[in-house]
C-alpha cells in the first residue's frame, strides 16, 4: 500500500516537473518571438525614417549636383549622377553680376551682425523688465507685446517705408537694423522672459544685498546665466535675417547694397536667359554659413528651447 502511494506521488511530481519545464520553454519561445518582432519593427521604422530623410533632402542634393552641370543639361536630368564636373559655374557665378559675389556676402554679414546685436541687447533688456521689475500695467504691456507676434509684417511695411523714406534711410541698412534695437521681435522677448523666470530670485536678492542695482544685477548676474537663450536668439536671428528677401528687396534697390537673397534673384531673367548653373552654385555658397551656424550652435539651440518652457 505504501509502495503504491509512493509511486503515485512520484508520478504526480514528474508530471508537475514536465509541466513546469514545458511552461518555461513556451515562455522562452514567446520572449524570443517578442524580441524578433521588436527588432523587425525597429528595422522597418529606421528604413521609413531614412526614406523620409532622403525624400526631404533630395531637392538640396539635386541643387548641389546641378551646380556642377552645364546650364543646358540641368533640367534634362532629374537624377543625382554626374557625368562630369562643370566647376565653371562657381567661377562664373562669383563674377556674373555687377559686383563680385563677395560684395553681397559682406553686405549680408553686416546686416546679420547688426540685427543680432540689436536683438540680443534690446530683447534681453525688455525681458528682464517684464520678468523682474514691477511697474504699472506690466501685464497689459506684456499681452500687447505678445499680440504683435500675430501681426503680419505686410501690414506695417507701407507706413514704415514712408517714414524711413522721409528720413532718407532707403538704400541703407538702418531700416533693417534700427528696429531691432527697439525690441521689435516679440518672440525673442517672450523666450528670454520665460528663461529669466526660471532663474531663482535669490540670486537677485543676494546681489542687491551686496549693493548692486538693476543694471549690475542684469549684466553681472542674469546675462551670464542666459547663454542658452541668447544663443537661441543669435541662431534664429542669423537664419531669418540671412534668408530675408522681402525686407531687403523693399529698402535696398542699389546693386552695391544688395544682400545675398537679392543677388541670387538677379541671376534669373524674365526673358528666358537665366543662368541656372551659376545661380545654383552661388546658392550652395550662400547655404554654407547657415549650415555652419546651425551645426555648431545646435546644442545651444536645443538647450535654449528646452529651458524656456517652449514645447
Distance between the termini: 78 Å
| Biggest pleated sheet | none
Q: Give the mean pLDDT.
A: 83
| Radius of gyration, in angstroms, nearest whole number | 32 Å
Structural class: mainly alpha
Q: What count of helical segments does DSSP give?
A: 13
Q: Helix and strand succession? A: HHHHHHHHHHHHH
Instruction: Assign an overall shape.
Output: flat
Number of E strands: 0
β-strand amount: under 5%
The helicity comes to: over 70%
pLDDT < 50 runs, ≥5 residues: none
Task: Fill in the keyword field for this structure.
0% strand, single chain, mainly alpha, flat, 311 residues
Describe this protein's structure.
With 311 residues, this protein is mainly α. It has helices at residues 2-66, 88-94, 101-132, 138-147, 153-167, 174-177, 186-197, 202-209, 214-225, 227-242, 246-251, 260-265, 276-306. The model has no long low-confidence stretch (mean pLDDT 83).
Strand and helix map with partners:
Layout: H1 2-66, H2 88-94, H3 101-132, H4 138-147, H5 153-167, H6 174-177, H7 186-197, H8 202-209, H9 214-225, H10 227-242, H11 246-251, H12 260-265, H13 276-306
Question: Could you write a compact summary of the structure shown?
Answer:
The protein has 311 residues and is an all-alpha fold. The chain has 13 helices and no strands.
Amino acid at each position: 500500500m505504501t509502495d503504491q502511494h509512493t509511486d503515485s506521488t512520484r508520478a504526480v511530481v514528474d508530471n508537475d516537473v514536465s509541466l513546469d519545464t514545458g511552461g518555461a520553454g513556451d515562455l522562452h519561445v514567446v520572449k524570443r518571438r517578442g524580441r524578433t518582432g521588436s527588432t523587425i519593427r525597429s528595422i522597418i521604422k529606421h528604413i521609413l525614417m531614412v526614406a523620409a530623410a532622403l525624400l526631404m533632402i533630395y531637392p538640396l542634393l539635386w541643387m548641389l549636383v546641378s551646380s556642377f552641370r552645364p546650364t543646358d543639361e540641368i533640367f534634362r536630368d532629374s537624377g543625382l549622377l554626374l557625368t562630369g564636373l562643370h566647376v565653371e559655374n562657381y567661377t562664373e557665378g562669383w563674377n556674373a553680376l555687377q559686383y563680385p559675389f563677395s560684395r553681397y556676402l559682406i553686405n549680408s554679414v553686416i546686416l546679420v551682425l547688426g540685427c543680432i546685436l540689436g536683438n540680443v541687447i534690446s530683447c534681453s533688456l525688455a525681458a528682464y523688465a517684464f520678468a523682474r521689475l514691477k511697474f504699472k500695467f506690466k501685464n497689459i504691456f506684456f499681452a500687447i507685446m505678445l499680440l504683435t507676434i500675430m501681426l503680419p509684417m505686410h501690414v506695417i511695411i507701407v507706413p514704415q517705408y514712408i517714414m524711413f523714406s522721409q528720413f532718407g534711410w532707403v538704400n541703407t541698412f538702418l531700416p533693417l537694423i534700427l528696429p531691432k534695437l527697439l525690441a521689435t521681435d516679440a518672440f525673442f522677448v517672450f523666450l528670454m522672459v520665460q528663461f529669466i523666470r526660471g532663474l531663482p530670485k535669490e540670486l537677485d536678492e543676494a546681489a542687491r544685498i551686496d549693493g548692486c542695482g538693476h543694471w549690475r544685477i542684469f549684466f553681472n548676474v542674469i546675462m551670464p546665466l542666459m547663454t542658452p537663450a541668447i544663443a537661441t536668439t543669435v541662431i534664429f536671428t542669423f537664419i531669418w535675417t540671412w534668408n530675408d528677401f522681402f525686407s531687403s528687396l523693399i529698402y535696398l534697390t542699389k546693386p552695391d547694397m544688395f544682400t545675398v537673397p537679392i543677388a541670387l534673384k538677379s541671376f534669373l531673367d524674365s526673358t528666358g536667359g537665366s543662368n541656372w548653373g551659376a545661380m545654383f552654385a552661388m546658392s550652395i555658397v550662400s547655404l554654407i554659413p547657415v549650415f555652419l551656424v546651425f551645426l555648431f550652435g545646435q546644442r545651444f539651440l536645443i538647450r535654449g528651447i528646452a529651458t524656456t518652457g517652449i514645447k
